[in-house]
Amino acid sequence: MKARWFLVLLLGLVLFIAPAQALPLLDFGDGGLSGGVVTTPDNGVNIIGVGIPLGALKVFLVPGPPTFYALGAGTVLDFNTVANTISITGTVPALGINAPIALMSGSFASFNVNYGKGNFLDLTDATGPDAKARELLVALGIDPLHPFNYFGFSFASIFSVSADTYIGYSTDLKNEGKVPEPISLILLGSGLAGAGLYRRLRKSKKN
């Protein structure tokens, strides 16, 4: 009888813990804006973007529907694969972030520069570690210490006025959270313990 009650308690603990582990996903986008200056200093091996305007932040707290936030005017993306830097600087008025701060900063672990048909230049499969502003995460109700996976980044630009100079017109930068390791171990241990108790109960019934 005690084993049964323990099993029920254990299952309840797992059900209580699992829903609490929302996996946040932050998705910065252009929000319909275009501009900035994009250059290729070495014939397309690397790419540099300065002042690329961003207008939207989509936040997923899985499970649950996404929430959309308008980024303040002047929020920009800068990236440089030569210097190995990427950053987003700006504001999110709806979250009380009214003075420009570094919303995100990081570096590249991998990337591909592609020339498309016509006058298009793309940056694809760009990933790397990053850090987000504490103010941003707190305002979103996300633990500032919550671990995130590498960002995933795609960018497209179109030929501008002079050779090898482009303007940005499409940006998508996602960063998904991951289950903290201690919680993963708790869930795994709980599952193994539950399986063991279930076998013991079946064995006792047969005897």
Q: With helices defined by DSSP (H or I, 4 residues minimum), what is the helix count?
A: 3
Query: Which residues sit in consecutive blocks of at least 5 with pLDDT less than 50?
Result: 5-20, 182-188
> What's the β-strand tally?
13
Tell me the β content.
35-45%
What does this structure look like?
The protein has 2 domains: 22-176; 180-207. The chain is of the alpha+beta class. Strand 9 (110-115) and strand 10 form a beta hairpin. Helix content is 25%, strand content 44%. The chain has helices spanning 2-20, 134-139, 181-206; strands spanning 23-29, 35-39, 48-53, 56-62, 67-70, 76-80, 85-92, 97-106, 110-115, 120-128, 130-132, 151-159, 165-176. The protein is globular and about 45 Å long. Helix 1 runs antiparallel to helix 3 (181-206).
Please outline the helices and strands.
Elements (H helix, E strand, L loop, with lengths): L1 H19 L2 E7 L5 E5 L8 E6 L2 E7 L4 E4 L5 E5 L4 E8 L4 E10 L3 E6 L4 E9 L1 E3 L1 H6 L11 E9 L5 E12 L4 H26 L1
Helix pairs in contact: 1-3
